[in-house]
Amino acid sequence: MIEEKGILFILSGPSGVGKGTVRKALFDKDIGLKYSISMTTRPIRTGEREGTDYFYRSKSEFEDMIQNNKLLEYAEYVGNYYGTPRDYVEQTLESGNDVFLEIEVQGALQVKKNFPEGVFIFLFPPSLEELKNRIVSRGTETEDLVKNRLMAAREEIEMMDAYDYVVVNDKIETAVHKVQSIVRSEHCKRERVAKQYKKILEDDLA
Ligand code: 5GP
């Protein structure tokens, strides 16, 4: 059964919870999702690549995108802008493909306003202690930035109520498996497929 439009999946949760790792492991499985590459003003990190990890842009280029309504959502996070280019998401969904966003919580709440039918998944840390260890061990942040990220994380966890699903990231494999199950289940949701079933019935009776 082919659904007409793709489904928008949003994986979100505090920084350091492992969203990036879960997303990469999920995409290694190639389950037919299209990843929306974000735009950011933060400096590129060692090992990252333009157009694969992010589109790295200057502050003024980013602000032009905002002005021209080219971003589906954006957030200023720990001193830098992050945002989702609108065209890619809308065109991909329209062509019947699922789109997957991996974004922080403020942005996810904005997406919810425009796409209430999206599927919102909150990745939850096993504990705040563990979250701190993960941010520190990444080694890319100064002490002040670690503090800021942890403060942001506490506030973000309070936003969990706006989400459809909560997945605890204690083991990557288990978390990926759960996200994969959510994707499959959403394709079986009656409200999504009812129209197609009805069409089949009508065609049969015609
Ligand atoms: P990082 O700098 O560690 O790559 O990302 C910092 C935070 O920004 C992470 O929580 C990441 O999920 C989030 N992020 C990445 N892309 C986007 C985006 O397009 N929009 C929003 N709102 N957040 C994003």
Structural commentary:
It is a single chain. This protein has 8 helices and 9 strands. The chain has helices at residues 19-28, 59-67, 86-94, 105-114, 128-138, 143-157, 172-186, 190-205, and strands at 8-12, 33-35, 39-40, 55-56, 71-77, 80-85, 98-102, 119-124, 165-168. Strands 2-7-1-8-9 form a 5-stranded parallel β-sheet, with helices on both faces. A 4-stranded mixed β-sheet has the order 4-3-6-5. It is globular. Bound molecules: guanosine-5'-monophosphate.
CATH architecture of the domain at 8-36 and 98-205: 3-Layer(aba) Sandwich
E-strand count: 9
Question: What's the CATH H-level homologous superfamily of the domain at 8-36 and 98-205?
Answer: P-loop containing nucleotide triphosphate hydrolases
* Poorly predicted runs of 5 or more residues: none
Q: Please state the structural category.
A: alpha/beta
What spatial form do the alpha-carbon principal axes imply? globular
CATH class of the domain at 8-36 and 98-205: Alpha Beta
Counted by DSSP, the helix tally is 8
Rounded mean pLDDT is 91
Oligomer: single chain
Q: Give the termini distance in whole angstroms.
A: 19 Å
Give the C-alpha Rg: 18 Å
Look up the CATH topology of the domain at 8-36 and 98-205.
Answer: Rossmann fold
Measured as a percent range, the helix fraction is: 40-55%
